Amino acid sequence: MLLPEALPDFLRWFRERTEEVWADFRTEKLADFQRRGIGGTSWLTGTKWKPGLSDAEIDELERNSGVAFPPDYRLYLKILNAPDRGARSFHFERSGLVQDADQMLFVDWSDEVDVRKKRQRVNDGILADVLSGVWFERWGVRPDGQDAGARHVTSLINEAPPLLPIFNHRFLPSQPVVSGLPVLSIFGTDAVIYGDDLRHYLLNEFWELLALDFAPARAERAINTQEMLFWGILLEPDP
What we know:
Blueprint: H1 7-23, H2 30-36, E1 40-43, H3 55-65, H4 71-79, E2 87-93, E3 96-99, H5 112-131, H6 146-159, E4 163-167, E5 170-173, E6 183-187, E7 190-195, H7 198-206, H8 229-233
Antiparallel strand pairs: 1-2, 2-3, 4-5, 5-6, 6-7
């Protein structure tokens, strides 16, 4: 399958291809996950993308959030925006595997609460690791006491350029404000580059949904972590 190289063409292809797959997708049930003994999510049959956002709508999001979006993130919102429904979700409790309320995995900027939750989960995960003893040298001298360390890192997070959510715990840095930034997967202080850029990321994350023969190679280009300020520190060698 020959895939479009230019990002606008690729995003339009991605929109059309995912809607084709979702049209006939069989949403899995609790019994399906119980049979496999795992939790997870399943797309809902008939999922479609909402209409893309206009330049004026994106400008308003930037004003309200106080963040300038990189050009390719603006393009992403203009062409894809967000699906019109969430995904079926299942997780384990003491009683066994249970079904959650449907979850929005892709970012939907019309739901400000969800955007905040996606960001807050990252912050909470980092602070949980700090309280368990994790510390990066570039955070400075570690204060005495766990609570003092957590307060210091909280101030660093608050000063950091906000992350731009894409899908679940995948984010695009908001600085520098240029095209071609890598997509980061952040879980606690465990951060990796999940795509050299938006196009590469979408292929890496969704190659099976898109029915591609294989996943593209992971992050191949050199990344200047210092350009991404606080978030770049998480990509450096383990503390």
